[in-house]
Amino acid sequence: MNIGQASEASGVSAKMIRYYEEIGLIRPAARTGNNYRVYGEAEVHVLRFIKRARSLGFSLEETETLLKLWQDKSRESAAVRRVATAHIGDLERRIAEMQGMVKTLKHLAHCCSGNERPDCPILDDLAGDSSAAGAS
Amino acid sequence: MNIGQASEASGVSAKMIRYYEEIGLIRPAARTGNNYRVYGEAEVHVLRFIKRARSLGFSLEETETLLKLWQDKSRESAAVRRVATAHIGDLERRIAEMQGMVKTLKHLAHCCSGNERPDCPILDDLAGDSSAAGAS
DNA sequence: GTAGGGCTTCCCACCATGGGAAGGTCAAGG
DNA sequence: CCTTGACCTTCCCATGGTGGGAAGCCCTAC
Questions:
Q1: What's the CA–C1' distance between B28 and C12, in Å?
Q2: A87-104 pLDDT per residue, tens
Q3: Digit-coded pLDDT (tens) for A113-123
Q4: Cα distance between residue B15 and residue B104, in whole Å
Q5: Which has the least CB within 10 A, A62, B55, B74, B113?
Q6: What Cα–Cα distance (Å) separates residue A72 from each residue in A45, A53, A107, B120?
Q7: Closest residue to A70, CB basis, from B87, B92, B123
């Protein structure tokens, strides 16, 4: 299987497969005589694992940890769960941060007449005008 | 006022002030004889505006738009609100995406015994094992 | 033989920010 | 007068992931 087929089969772009190899996330692929990378089912399985981990928001570093745990048959599931719960905490922190932004923005947008006149509480807030409507 | 004081007064690092100047987000600061940048209250006000916009999650590009609208006395508040509501939509999309991740992860983490044994539904899910507990 | 598609490596871009080196400038204090 | 330290300047590099594209090799089909 060439890199194109592996990409197709895993959903990871060829570009990214090479990159993952370069940074050591996956082992260097075997090469044919013409220097093409070759992949088998096992490699594609790894790529799909990575793809899925990325789609759950894990960083490449976390993904590497998870990959190693996956391949370590004597792992403790507690270690896996620690990675996952840390990531959950991370996501929740970022979600909360963004929700705070949304809350403020919705309030400001609500207070903004949104017509042809120039006065705008959104800009007032950004400008630090403390008399702006509910600048949280 | 030197760049250090402007940084102090605005909460924007000196590094970023220079960067904002370089990309044209703010006008090039005046210079003293010794080539130091000089700032006044007006410039600090702009920097604080940028700082606040960034803290609400606006990109530098959106911030530039808002900055121009702020400085355009004949703006229509509708234009400002369009930028804000687009950004709200963006944030909400990202929040929803992350919440989906959290939901899946929490379920998997809940199903994981988290002890010293190796079997782990989190890894099963990542590995694409469709018999994994509730792999959404 | 040529055309096309795939593969290779290499460099560049994004977005925003920080780190740090090498060198100029200024004020205070010995 | 000289040193020290705290500023400032420009310049390059790194991050995290991903994509774009060029230049060149390889293979197959026509």
A1: 27
A2: 999 999 999 999 999 999
A3: 988 999 999 99
A4: 40
A5: B74
A6: 15, 17, 50, 12
A7: B123
